[in-house]
Amino acid sequence: MNHVERVQVALARGRPDRVPAGEFELEPGLVAALLGREGPAGFAEEVAARDLLGMDLLAVTPQTPLKEEGNDCYQDIWGRRLRRQRGLTTVQAPAIPSLQEAASYRLPDANAFDLRSLRRWREETDFFVFAFVDGPFQGTNKLFDFTDFLLAVAGREGAISDLAAAVVDFNLELARLCVQAGAHGLLIGDDIAYERGTYIHPGLWREIFLPLLRRQVEAIKAMGVPVLYHSDGNLRAVLPDLAALPLDGIQCLEPAAGMDIGAIKKECGGRLCLMGNFDLDLLASGTPETITAAVEQLLLAAAPGGGYIFSTSSGILSADLPPRNVLALYRAVAEYGAY
């Protein structure tokens, strides 16, 4: 099987020749370290690093230029004021400063997003390429101060529901453009939870955001591509709701948040492909031996019968991870992931 076929079979809850594996993003510093090189790592180097690790997939986030404002500050296409210092990006001012301004806010034009990277990965490599779009919860909350957003949701403010519906319209237009550009599948990023549960009451999420998420998923499925859903945190309270959507799979399954992949496999494995669950903290602080043992145990729980894709829970490997641990991680997947 090639990379695309392997991922497609797993997304359909089938059993390919081996467990598909991959991370959505590799930071350039890690790419260079894995290859034993110094200096900047570009497209060719990332392809080589993914081949070295035996990955099958990646995800591309459509990008737009940032407008420089001085003092390390920038404005993004959403209207947020950002600051970059020491490799960290923080939001200095939200796109929508107050709920009263939500009705007049206008979302950006999806055609302004740069899809050249997506096209290049599709045309010049044989990896399965996901395109990243927001979900209704994440796509709306990122426009506000998060506390203000949560208070407005709790108050069932109509402006939030109206804006979230417009966000879904935007998400669908961007998804359509990504499919036209060659994306094999869509990844909906929609962080609705933290380690103890959902950010808002599950009933409130079902009332306001679940119908919008269903509309987004159904419309993307109508485009003829698989859809994967990502959220950090403990999703146990809403997992049956997610499993009832026409999603192909769910990614993250954060072990530190109590997401027991063996139990989830028994509960939802027939309806959802599961992806993720390897502890990023262990990858950062463990030894090659402890990492190898953890991979073996994870695959014993998640791989039988198919419908599983290996990745860390985050799907992003940062430059500060020990290269030898990352190599050990993927060597263990190659060793224990064959059916």
Automatic annotation (TrEMBL):
- InterPro entries attached to this UniProt entry: Methanogen_methyltrans, UROD/MetE-like_sf, Uroporphyrinogen_deCOase
Pfam families tied to this protein: URO-D
Q: What is the protein named?
A: Uroporphyrinogen decarboxylase
Give the SUPFAM superfamilies listed for this entry.
UROD/MetE-like
Record key words, sorted: Lyase
| EC supergroup of this enzyme | lyase
Question: Which terms does the UniProt entry file under GO BP?
Answer: porphyrin-containing compound biosynthetic process
What residue stretches are annotated with the Uroporphyrinogen decarboxylase (URO-D) domain?
A: 90-336
